[in-house]
Structures are given as structure tokens and as C-alpha cells.
Amino acid sequence: MSDTTTSHLQTARDALDRCQDLLADESPEWAELNAALHSAQRAIAIAEYTRELAVNAPPVEEAEVGVAPAPVEPTPLEVAVAEVTIEEPAPLPAAGASLAERLSEQRLESLKNSLSINNRVRFASLLTDGDVPALLKLCDALEASDNFEAAQVLILETAGDVDWDDEENGGVEFLSLVRRLFITV
Predict the structure, then answer these.
(1) How far is CA 175 from the centre of its chain?
(2) Which of 9-13, 78-82, 169-173 has the lowest mean pLDDT?
(3) What angle do CA 174, 179, 180 make, to 5 degrees?
(4) Can you say whether the dihedral through the CA atoms of 109, 112, 113, 118 is positive or negative?
(5) What is the pTM of this model?
(6) Which is nearest to 171 in space by CA: 159, 183, 182?
(7) Which end of the chain is more exposed for a tag (fewer CB within 10 A), N or C?
């Protein structure tokens, strides 16, 4: 950051301190100055944030930027009252798939071991009329299946009448877990 910018920032801080001392009076004439003070506080915060970004950024040669002659130093009150507009930094590029998405696409080695206690009870009530040991036997049989289609047939033979389109009841979630048994890497 240039010495001029640092000087402007210090001048703005000094003006802000003086304005805060004057506002201690709280008379109605100072309402406009209070608004200017708020604007100066915001400008300083933005300038400090931008300075931190500029310090971490690689140096830019002034010849590339096309630097204009240095402006005349404003008075401290002009700095406090002036609105500072600074361009927002460009948004960061998308980070890609989240960790949860990547984990949900990984192959399962064991369906039975991937089920929490709550899911065992929920899926047992959905698929085996609440019989958890029967659900665990079904999981073993699904793991022994040759492919996802054979596993689906086994589920349909065991489950009876399940609304597979209703995402709330857990059928879709169970099928997605079974599908992960047969993901090829």
C-alpha cells in the first residue's frame, strides 16, 4: 500500500476521533455530523479491509495501472464527510462437490455397518414390519447380491407395499444406500 493511502487512512482516523469528541455534546445541530461520522467509520473499515487485501496481493507495477498524479491532500473534515466507494472483490470460484456429496458417492463395503441405530429402526419398520433382525438378514442378502437389479428384486419381494416415490418415509434413502453397494470405482 502506498504512503499516500496510509496517510489518507491516518487522516481519516484522526478526523473520526475529533468527530466523536464533538458528538459527546449530543445537541441537535450535530445530527448531520453524526451521519457523516457513521459514513467515515464505514469508509475506514472498508479501507482497512482493502489494505489487508492489498498487502497480501502480489505487487503491481505502477506503469501497468496508469497512475494519475497524486491528488491534493483533503482536509481532515473532508475526509470524514466524503463517501468512499471501493469495488467489492470478485467472488471466489465454486469449490466443487462438498464433502457430503463426495462421501455419498463412495462405495459401501457393508450396508449393515453403515446403518445407524435410528436408521435400523426406521428401515425395519418400513421394510420388515419393525423386525430389526430381519432387516439385518435382508442387508446380508443384499450384500451378497450380484448387482443392483437383483438387489432391487430382493427388496421388492421382502418389503411388500412401500411407496418408493415418497422421499419422506425413507425408501429412497434405503435404495440409495443399496445402490452404493454396487458402485464400481
Answers:
(1) 29
(2) 78-82
(3) 100
(4) positive
(5) 0.46
(6) 159
(7) C
